[in-house]
Amino acid sequence: MAQPIIDQPVVDSHHHIWRLKETPWLQGPSVPRIFGDYEPLRRDYSITDYMAEAVPCGVAKSVYVQVNVGPGKEVEEVQWVQSAADQHGFPHAITAFADLSAPGVGEVIDREMACGNVRAIRQQMHWHEKVQNRFAAAPDIIAGANWRRGLKEVGSRGLMFELQVFPSQMVHAIQLVRDFPDITFILIHAGMLEDRSESGWAFWAEGVREMADCPNVIVKLTGFGTFERRCSEALWAPVVRQTVDLFGPSRCLFGSNFPVEKLWTTYPQLLAVMRGCLSVYSQAEQREIFHDVAVRSYKLEAG
After folding, report:
1. Residue-range definition of the domain harbouring residue 57
2. pLDDT tens profile 7-32
3. In terms of CB atoms within 10 Å, which of 72, 175, 182, 195 comes out highest?
4. DSSP-derived 3-state class of residue 223
5. What does the pLDDT look like over 119-129, one tens digit per residue?
């Protein structure tokens, strides 16, 4: 039975802000990308732009996730986001970038952590046979010794790692999280279901099920419009609910993926769709997903 959709404070665990001049992938001629035509994104998107869309919808806290600035500028990126937080009160936590294969990655992370709000590291590892869906140079980088040495630097500092992989990479991802049981991993975009055929769905579900068996993994309910480029409860609810049922509400986090999701929706519509998807769960379970899990995981002040 559907539960009342309660009026509650929301923590957005996954959004971006950027400066166009510092974001190379938004510059130059358009090229095929995972989310289609991105011309509307090719402008500055500031923290005040984000707040104007999110805060009226009840978002009380947020987590910034790195945006792949120019090479060697990741520390400056964190410093800029921290300055926005100091001035405007948003975001409340930062997921920074670090190249875990690079020599001296520990020093880079230390410089990022000096900003105060850094709670996690993301280095996008998703690889796909379709070039436009591919980010990493190879599907199995996370199995390499050099990269894993960098991951130890993340874990030794008490940071989480945000893990972004396709279902075809789950075998390596599951081994990774088992090999590093003391690191909390956040599975981004619910494991990136791209193939909605019967066999594709089953393959995704099996990987997510095995990932959910690892107690050091939590999952972000984000990015559901990436491949369909639509925001609808009918489209999103099956994957949202299966993910929540596998992980349990106490290991799931809501995130908007704004402004990328602006390509096909608005913040009020996205939040309404997610509330509808999650209305089958109790009020306490909804609060876990929309608020409490993010507060615990990113060590935010409760409120």
Report:
1. 10-297
2. 789 999 999 999 999 999 899 888 77
3. 195
4. coil
5. 999 997 764 56
